[in-house]
């Protein structure tokens, strides 16, 4: 207990304030200060200081008057335009403003005027490198979304072209991703079986992509990107881990050679399907699959240990596809029972605007719901990846412009036989390591995919499904971040709880339910912090004018006859009742301590509201009721250092009038010294 330590003995406020203010008086005798402040006696309230028993006490001033319309305009500006996007248009001619407007929409015009052959060489190498990863991933993720494999290649052609024109990131590599693909396939398959109704499933996928892009672009256009902040990092860690586990288990169908497999996306049905289909397991496919899996994981390990060999893991998926295709083609009689991709059509993306589903029925509702969920996930991943590489290279990434770019490419993609795309972490990491300098690397990747679509599609006829399963498992295992989950447990138990809810919700209920529960837990955490804010009891650090938490700093001491409290949050209707009860409990505990230790009686309660950044009418009622309650108990109630907005509301509500001249101070030290001096007997 601190109560018996010498350092925690109460300090006589008269002695401590006299000692503290010795230096304080000297501070205000500097000639420079006399030009900026006026020293007046107690009868003059107009200036910023008054002198009491030789001590200088600063008045707490009201903020300058600002009209309500102007304040509302300022608050809305800070909500929607914190980056002040129009600042660059100031003091510009008409044509310069037009040029800046074009650049703000088509980001390509930012870097094209300064482009040179050296940058092109770097982008060319990076674009060819990521295309080796994009082609097999496009095929794999289309299968993950229960779509024809060719749709994955279509989605690696048109969206990257559009992003290279509209996008702000120099390193983001665009294409299908495992998370969005899985969620889309799962949500659509809950109502429409891709095996029984493939055409309807495909139409709903394109329609969901359209609404995903519309939602993403709307967030950027109306500058509502802060909505994505409800997806906390802890939530995403658990969500992606759960999705990765389910995806990996789903790929056991191809890795083990199972032909009859469940369409459900929960842990128990998937495991049951795996073990109930043991008779379908194929030793040939198992050996082949685990050999490719070992090769891919080994390549990934080499690249992680030696960053200069990044191309090993980047080229491994394409090398696996080529080797497996050649092997199955050369030994057709040996591998005739191995499931294969089959024939893929040559040619570029066919138009799909006529396939979008806009009939007002439950299928449209499913498409909208799927589009919003996958759109949020895709946008969160794309923005997070883009900001990661932007911070590594110290350039600014405009989140709202990125939302509009990603949304526009998905809307356009839905009309060109593409499904949801965004910035992929794996491809972007390879793009960065390969030395990409601008978004042109996406264009080069799209060009390679175009050549593949036009001339190389027959080569994929003999590609075995088991190879694609191994590639998918290798890709999604990186989403299971065990170290990050353990850090959550070590640093913040509520974050760990949100992560766990997301993880187990995905595994045992459904992907969308797991995400919804995790968001709910994150919001609950915010509400908990608002409704139960932290309050601390403050003490003086000997020999200084500093007041800090008694329980945090061991050398702080109580000031006799004073209870000094600090509130560390805004005061709203959600927490006003709790704060009133908590402050009165602090008073009751202090009085019990005084009686127990036979200390000087409590005379004054000081409330430091420096950290109270906002207050509403319920908070004002709290201040008024505390004042009334403490007055009835013959305890003086004092407020210290209200911020401008709080001070203005205290003044307008007339509550400040009840505190008189010695109820409001700028610092805790001035409050203690001034009030304690008023208790001194007159000379």
Question: What attributes characterize this protein structure?
Answer:
two-stranded antiparallel ribbon; 10 strands; elongated; Transcription Regulator spoIIAA; 683 residues; Sulfate transporter; transmembrane; mainly alpha; 2 domains; disordered N terminus; six-stranded mixed sheet
Mean pLDDT: 83
Largest sheet geometry: 6 strands, mixed
Integer-rounded radius of gyration = 33 Å
- Regions with pLDDT < 50 over 5+ consecutive residues? 1-7, 16-47
Give the fraction of residues assigned to helices: 55-70%
Number of helices: 27
Count of DSSP E strands?
Answer: 10
Shape: elongated
* Category by helix and strand content: mainly alpha
As laid out across the biggest beta sheet, the strand order is: 6-5-7-8-9-10
Please give the domain count: 2
């Amino acid at each position: 207990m601190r109560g018996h330590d010498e350092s925690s003995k109460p300090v006589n406020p008269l002695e401590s304030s006299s000692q503290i203010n010795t230096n304080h008086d000297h501070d205000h005798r500097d000639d420079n200060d006399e030009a900026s402040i006026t020293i007046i006696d107690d009868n003059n309230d107009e200036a910023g200081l008054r002198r009491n028993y030789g001590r200088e006490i600063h008045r707490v001033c009201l903020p300058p008057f600002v009209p309500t319309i102007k304040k509302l305009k300022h608050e809305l500006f800070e909500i929607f335009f914190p980056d002040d996007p129009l600042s660059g248009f100031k003091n510009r001619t008409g044509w310069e403003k037009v040029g800046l407007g074009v650049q703000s929409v088509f980001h390509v015009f930012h870097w094209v005027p300064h482009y040179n052959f050296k940058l092109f060489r770097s982008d060319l190498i990076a674009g060819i490198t990521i295309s080796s990863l994009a082609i097999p991933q496009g095929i794999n993720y289309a299968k993950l979304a229960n779509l024809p494999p060719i749709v994955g290649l279509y989605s690696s052609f048109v969206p990257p072209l559009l992003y290279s024109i509209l996008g702000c990131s120099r390193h983001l590599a665009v294409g299908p991703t495992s998370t969005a693909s899985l969620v889309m396939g799962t949500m659509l398959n809950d109502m429409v079986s891709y095996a029984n109704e493939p055409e309807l499933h495909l139409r709903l996928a394109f329609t969901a992509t359209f609404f995903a892009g519309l939602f993403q672009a709307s967030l950027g256009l109306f500058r509502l990107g802060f909505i994505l902040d409800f997806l906390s990092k802890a939530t995403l860690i658990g969500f992606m881990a759960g999705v990765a586990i389910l995806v990996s288990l789903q790929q056991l169908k191809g890795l083990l050679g199972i032909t009859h497999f469940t369409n459900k996306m929960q842990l128990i049905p998937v495991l049951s399907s795996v073990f109930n289909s043991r008779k379908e397991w194929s030793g040939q496919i198992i050996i082949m699959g685990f050999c490719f899996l070992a090769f891919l994981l080994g390549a990934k390990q080499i690249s992680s240990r030696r960053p200069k060999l990044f191309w090993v893991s980047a080229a491994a998926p394409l090398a696996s596809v080529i080797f497996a295709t050649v092997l199955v083609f050369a030994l057709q009689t040996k591998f005739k029972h191995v499931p294969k991709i089959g024939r893929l059509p040559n040619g570029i993306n066919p138009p799909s605007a006529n396939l979008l589903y806009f009939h007002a029925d439950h299928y449209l509702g499913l498409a909208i719901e799927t589009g919003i969920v996958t759109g949020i996930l895709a946008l969160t991943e794309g923005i997070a990846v883009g900001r990661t590489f932007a911070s590594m290279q110290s350039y600014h990434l405009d989140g709202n412009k990125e939302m509009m770019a990603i949304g526009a490419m998905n809307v356009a993609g839905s009309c060109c036989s593409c499904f949801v795309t965004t910035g992929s972490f794996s491809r972007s990491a390879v793009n960065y390591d390969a030395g990409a300098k601008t978004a042109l690397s996406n264009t080069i990747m799209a060009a390679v995919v175009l050549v593949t679509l036009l001339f190389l599609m027959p080569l994929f006829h003999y590609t075995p499904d088991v190879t694609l399963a191994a590639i998918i498992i290798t890709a999604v295992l990186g989403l299971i971040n065990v170290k990050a989950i353990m850090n959550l447990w070590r640093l913040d138990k509520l974050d760990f709880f949100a992560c766990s809810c997301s993880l187990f919700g995905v595994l045992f209920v459904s992907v969308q339910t797991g995400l919804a529960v995790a968001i709910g837990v994150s919001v609950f955490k915010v509400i908990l912090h608002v409704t139960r804010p932290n309050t601390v009891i403050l003490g003086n650090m000997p020999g200084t004018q500093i007041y800090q938490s008694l329980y945090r700093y061991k050398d702080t001491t109580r000031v006799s006859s004073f209870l000094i409290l600090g509130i560390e949050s805004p005061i709203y209707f959600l927490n006003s009742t709790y704060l009133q009860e908590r402050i009165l409990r602090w008073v009751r505990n202090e009085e019990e301590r005084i009686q127990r230790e036979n200390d000087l009686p409590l005379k004054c309660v000081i409330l430091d509201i420096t950290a109270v950044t906002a207050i509403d009418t319920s908070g004002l009622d709290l201040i008024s009721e505390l004042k009334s309650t403490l007055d009835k108990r013959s305890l003086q109630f004092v407020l210290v250092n209200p911020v401008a907005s709080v001070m203005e509301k205290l003044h307008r509500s007339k509550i400040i009038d009840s505190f008189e001249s010695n109820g409001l101070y700028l610092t805790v030290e001035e409050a203690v010294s001034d009030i304690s001096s008023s208790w001194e007997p007159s000379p």
